[in-house]
Amino acid sequence: MGLKGGPTQDEVMAVSLLKLRINEGDVMADIGCGTGKISIQASDRCSHIYAIDRRAEAVEYAKQEIKDTDRGNITLIHGEAVQALDDIDELNCAFVGGSGDIETVLEKLTEKVHGRIVVNAVLLGTVSRTVRKMKEMGIFVEALHIQVSRSHELVGDLMFKPIHPVFIIVGEVKK
């Protein structure tokens, strides 16, 4: 049984991680970590990851996934992102896969991050609010619309079935 709202599709994750520009040894935050998939994938390059989710079921799910992959450099935090970020020093990058109050989260992240912030969104309202806030803060880089289709067998041939589109919004904090 999967977790509602996840996991991030592999193709979307690949683009999101590329846009984060993770360097060896970076410290990263994964806001709205859900299944922990992004954190686990990024943990190969990052020295430490703070995986944060407000949903208890997501934290439990991610805890098991992290344990199963034996990743010791991921700290899982159950709570609201803004409060959790108060206890974290500097970050090199941050991924936001889910947040109810994106504007406040972005404000807090710009205090902590020296580097890229990547937000994945499926709702147009979230896209609009994220781009507007990033522009207001002077950190907006670009927005992408990712639509992936996967092949499926049909009557001895192949057809393509689309997965849900995702918007990837990129910001960069320079200090």
SSE layout and pairing:
Elements (H helix, E strand, L loop, with lengths): L9 H11 L6 E5 L5 H6 L5 E6 L2 H13 L5 E5 L2 H6 L4 E6 L5 H11 E9 L2 H14 L2 E7 L2 E6 L2 E6 L3 E8 L2
Parallel strand pairs: 1-2, 1-4, 2-3, 4-5
Antiparallel strand pairs: 5-9, 6-9, 7-8
Provide a descriptive summary of the structure in words:
The protein is of the alpha/beta class. Helix content is 35%, strand content 33%. The protein has six helices and nine strands, in the order H-E-H-E-H-E-H-E-H-E-H-E-E-E-E. It has helices spanning 10-20, 37-42, 56-68, 81-86, 102-112, 124-137, and strands at residues 27-31, 48-53, 74-78, 91-96, 113-121, 140-146, 149-154, 157-162, 166-173. The protein has a seven-stranded mixed β-sheet, sandwiched between helices. Strands 7-8 form a two-stranded antiparallel sheet. Helix 3 links the parallel strand 2 (48-53) and strand 3. Helix 5 (102-112) runs parallel beside helix 6 (124-137). The longest helix is centred in the last third of the chain and has 14 residues, at 124-137. The protein is globular. The mean pLDDT is 92.
Q: What is the residue-mean pLDDT, rounded to a whole number?
A: 92
SSE string: HEHEHEHEHEHEEEE
The shape, in one word, is globular
Give Rg in angstroms.
16 Å
Query: What is the helix tally?
Result: 6
Structural class: alpha/beta
Largest sheet, in brief, is:
7 strands, mixed
